[in-house]
Amino acid sequence: MKALTFKRYGKSPDIGLADIPRPTLKADELLVQVHAAGLNPIDNMIPTGMFKPVLHFQLPATLGSDLAGIVTEVGSSVTRFKPGDAVFASIFDLGTGAIADFAVVPECAAALKPANLSFVQAASIPMVGLTSWQALKERINLHPGQKVFIPAGSGGIGTFAIQLAKHLGAKVGTTTSTGNLELVRALGADEVVDYKTQEFETVLRDYDAVLGTVRGDAIEKSMSILRPGSQIVSLIGPLDAAFARAKRLNVFLTFVFGLMSRKIMRLAKRRSLKYSFLFVHPNGSQLAEIGKLLEAQQIQPVIDRIFPFEEAKDALEYLAQGRSKGKVVIQM
């Protein structure tokens, strides 16, 4: 079967389509014929080796985490799915990849595809949906009437997180460029800052939470818009010791991640804020709940471009430009 693989870590990872054996199943797994695979920024980061200490692949490795497709086989202990079922899933951090003709999906990571979504639409959801759910609903415990700042509102995470936050009853502030102001307002954003003409920290006030999605000094700047007792949940780092302990990493990496986050922790404590790093984990039950919101059309997929499988490498390069409105998806 065909798959998009990388052969080594570093500046020359040799990314390209390759013929690899069709995977074999364990008792608790599904074999899914992939109809579409959604891309995420981390797909470009993994081959650089940036996450090598915490994400483990056997090289050459198949890229991609998000997929939608048809179950073709099930393991002996699988009870919730059968061949012919249309499913979607994230297989992030499971050592396998989604940009392939077939992918192995643990039963616990899969959910039935919302009937009203195409495979392309469904494949755009898993990582951004689960990340938003785990950050806003679980970690922050966002309540009606609270205010959450979700920067980069027109991106993959932003377009979903804004809609979920509004579903949870929150007020949403975001940033975007001039050309995307109407898009993020249509998604439900209440306060929109055009970052080309304004600094968000001079405009926004009295927020209860920040979802960190932008690299650089954006998280430090966002502290000034928060009330004491508020939370910052970062998706882009710095990694912290709590994350290392949750991943059961060794003492050295726990120490290193503690050092990496020391400055942001100190600044947060000074302002009576709580900082934490979030690494999304696959969860089929949560994805099924997200699927209900999609079926009820309370959340809409936002897709920027669709690439054919043969142009999967080009799709990654396009995503790396950082200009997409919503998600980039590969269609098999």
Describe it for me?
By secondary structure, this protein is of the alpha/beta class. It has twelve helices and 16 strands. The strands form three sheets. Strands 3, 5, 6, 7, 8, 15 and 16 form a seven-stranded mixed sheet that branches. A six-stranded parallel sheet has the order 11-10-9-12-13-14, with helices on both faces. The longest helix is centred in the middle third of the chain and has 14 residues, at 126-139. The radius of gyration is 19 Å and the shape is globular. The model has no long low-confidence stretch (mean pLDDT 94).
Q: Indicate the radius of gyration in whole angstroms.
A: 19 Å
Low-confidence stretches: none
Structural class: alpha/beta
How much β-strand is present in the residues? 25-35%
Q: What are the main properties of this structure?
A:
alpha/beta; seven-stranded mixed β-sheet; six-stranded parallel β-sheet; 16 strands; globular; NAD(P)-bd_dom_sf; EC 1.-.-.-; oxidoreductase activity
